[in-house]
Automatic annotation (TrEMBL):
<dbReference type="InterPro" id="IPR006840">
    <property type="entry name" value="ChaC"/>
</dbReference>
<dbReference type="Pfam" id="PF04752">
    <property type="entry name" value="ChaC"/>
</dbReference>
<dbReference type="InterPro" id="IPR036568">
    <property type="entry name" value="GGCT-like_sf"/>
</dbReference>
<dbReference type="InterPro" id="IPR013024">
    <property type="entry name" value="GGCT-like"/>
</dbReference>
<feature type="compositionally biased region" description="Low complexity">
    <location>
        <begin position="205"/>
        <end position="238"/>
    </location>
</feature>
<protein>
    <recommendedName>
        <fullName>glutathione-specific gamma-glutamylcyclotransferase</fullName>
        <ecNumber>4.3.2.7</ecNumber>
    </recommendedName>
</protein>
<keyword id="KW-0456">Lyase</keyword>
<feature type="region of interest" description="Disordered">
    <location>
        <begin position="198"/>
        <end position="238"/>
    </location>
</feature>
Length: 238
């Protein structure tokens, strides 16, 4: 979506026009939307998106870091394929939930390029809203060496907690749902070897306590988490 790149209201209006407001509204989750959706879904399904992949290469200066110590979050980037989950909004609340989701993901005018992507599910392909990132974005980090990633995992903290927490939560959410992401698993092994998490992927008690303090400080700026109401199929490995 390239129209009105610096006007989030115009971008949202364009997206609403593409959706039409009449049919089902689906959202594709590939990272925090899986474990912290903050919306009530009528249904969710495992899904595969071709032509895009999950990458730990988006700079975060608010949610998981600061301008002085940027953190990292996942983005959906062109190339490859990505397994995640699609969520169908409840028709009666879809428009309001879209606004809430937009306010969360497009904070500060927006870094992502939101677009509808065809998501393959066991029940057929559905068009779902996905938040993608361009390699031309100033928030795209490019490839970072492991030492740089470890430094970020050790120190970066934003209003929703640390980058380390974010990575560990995403890894656990995917693992628990039977989705295997080799790069995330490699990053978790890297963090474990550095003593940042336990061998099973759990954070040390001190890191959990620090994270809980950070989460409590940010709770006034976030909404309550809701879990999907139902699932129509069993997650598949990928």
């Amino acid at each position: 979506m390239s129209a009105c790149p610096h006007d989030p209201a115009a971008r949202l209006a364009l997206l609403r026009a593409q959706w039409g407001g009449r049919g089902d509204l689906w959202v594709f989750g590939y990272a925090s939307l899986i474990w912290r959706p903050e919306f009530e879904a009528a249904e969710h399904r495992p899904a595969l998106v071709r032509g895009w992949h999950r990458a730990f290469r988006m700079r975060s200066q608010i949610n998981r870091g600061t301008p002085q110590q940027p953190g990292l979050v996942f983005a959906l980037m062109a190339g490859g394929a990505c397994r995640g989950f699609v969520y169908r909004m409840r028709p009666e609340t879809a428009d309001a939930e879209l606004q809430r989701l937009w306010d969360r993901e497009m904070v500060g005018g927006g870094i992502y390029d939101p677009r509808f992507l065809p998501c393959e599910t066991a029940q057929g392909t559905v068009p779902a809203l996905a938040f993608t990132l361009s390699r031309r974005s100033e928030h795209y980090t490019g490839r970072l060496c492991d030492e740089e990633v470890l430094a970020i995992l050790r120190h970066a903290r934003g209003r929703y907690g640390t980058t380390l927490q974010y990575l560990a939560e995403t890894a656990a959410a995917l693992r628990d749902r039977g989705v295997h992401d080799r790069e995330i698993e490699r990053l978790m092994r890297l963090a474990a070897c550095a003593g940042l998490v336990g061998r099973g992927g759990d954070q040390p008690a001190s890191a959990r306590r620090n994270g809980q303090r950070g989460a409590s400080r940010s709770s006034s700026g976030s909404t309550a988490t809701s879990t999907p109401a139902s699932s129509t199929s069993t997650p598949t490995a990928g």
